[in-house]
Model the fold of this input.
Amino acid sequence: MKRDNVNYFVIGIFVLVMIGAFFVLMFFVTGRTGPADNYTVKYSNVSGLKFGTGVLYEGYRVGQIESIEPAPTDTGMQYVLTLSIARNWKIPDDSVARVMSSGLISAVQIEIAEGSSDKSIAPGGEIQGQEQQNLFAVISDAAGEIKTLSHDGVMPVLKNLSNRITELSEQQLGPMVETLNKRLNEDLIGDAQSLVAKLDRSAQHLEKILGPNNQAQIEDFLVHIDDVALNLGGLISRIELTRIQMGETLAALKHLASNNEEKVGSAVQNASDSMAQMNQALKTVNEHLSTILYNVEGSSRQLHEFSQAVRDNPARIIRGTE
Done:
């Protein structure tokens, strides 16, 4: 009998210890690790928020949601959340409490973004709240806006553009294409055919020039061109040598002229005097040229008559005349 009592006592103690451990574990899980101060924040949508939802301060867990109470207003329903945050935790009065989640399927939490103000919110005060941005709702709204834009804005523009292109093609592009086609058929094709015929004739002439009969001559011509190039190189060398010799000759003449400058001057003076005398003689001859030409003409006429008389009667040379 005593043994059974001992067993029941041990089992009772074990159960009490486990219950205490459970409450301690729940205490730590819910974030209540010590004394806390209460703050309030207001939202118009509390989807995903409930008692025990964690409150983070720049990513560090500092408390949890204690209660959510609806508060009707003139602009609509709002919800007042009571947050329990670790006691003596300094929160600047320009801090913002955002409802956010770390991922698409993560639990929703309240993230307090630290402000830059030197003043802190007193316990029991209100923290400025910022609504949660629902990604799927935003995507849905954007899709609706895009659909509206496509139906009301883009489609009419495309329809007007299609009608305008159709009108333009009927009114302007058709005559333009017809004119271009006519131009191609009448002018350009004829010019192209004429050009092809000229090219054909040029190719035939070139084939005749480069035919088998002229290939040997062309090869000989190229060989002679090589010989001419070699001879031209030798000629250029000789011309260069001649230029050098002419330079030396000019230098010698310059030296000779400098040494015989007086003699050259005297010779030039004598030549000048001779030219003057010759000029005077030519002037005299010019003055008497008409008389001389007259006498020459008379003598020539008499000689012509004499030769004519001798030709008519050669015996006159021997017998003479009366």
Remarks:
- Residues 35-133 form one domain.
- The helical segments are 2-29, 135-209, 212-259, 261-287, 289-312, 316-319.
- The chain has a mean pLDDT of 77.
